Structure formats: structure tokens, C-alpha cells
Amino acid sequence: MLETRTGEAVELEHAGQAVGEAVEEGTRRLAERWEDTRARMRTRARDAAQATRRAARATDSWVQDHPWPAAGIAAFVGVVLGALACRRTG
């Protein structure tokens, strides 16, 4: 009877070690994926910031070259947004 319990205890110990190893492997893989994801997000954020700066420079240049059409467009957009705001609240 003592041998059976000892065998079961050994089996449980091996099972516990296997679970521990699986958890360690899962933790390692998760950390790798987390770092990969962070690196991709940093790259995308940098690219988005560069694209935004380019768009802002292009817009500024166009407004400097065409001030009256820019003012007209801004006024039109303001009227449309004002009308939509009044329609929702009224």
C-alpha cells in the first residue's frame, strides 16, 4: 500500500513539474508577443505622427496660397456643423 501512494506522489510531482514548465513556456511566449506588439505599435504611432505632420504642412501651405477659398470652406463647415447641432438639440 505504501508503494502505491509513493507512486501516486511521484506521478503528482511529475504532473506538477509539467504544469510548471508549461506555465513558464506560456509566460515566455506571452512576453515575446507583448514586446513584438509594443514594437509594432511604436512604429505605427511614429508613422501616423509623420503623416499627420506632412498633412498639416500641406494644409498650411494651401491655406497660405488660397486664403479666401479656405475661409469659405471653413465658414461652410461651420454652418453645416451648427445646423446639425441645432437639429439634434432642438
Helix-strand blueprint:
Layout: H1 2-65, H2 67-89
Structure, explained:
The chain contains 2 helices and no strands. It is mostly helical and 90 residues long. It has one domain (2-65). The longest helix has 64 residues, at 2-65. The radius of gyration is 32 Å and the shape is elongated. The N and C termini lie far apart (85 Å).
Kindly summarize this structure in a few lines.
97% of the residues lie in helices and 0% in strands.
Q: Which class do the helix and strand fractions yield? A: mainly alpha
Unreliable residue stretches: none
Distance between the first and last residues' Cα: 85 Å
Measured as a percent range, the helix fraction is over 70%
Domain count, please report it.
Answer: 1
Helical stretch tally: 2
Q: How large a portion of the residues is in β-strands, by DSSP E?
A: under 5%
Q: Kindly state the number of beta strands.
A: 0
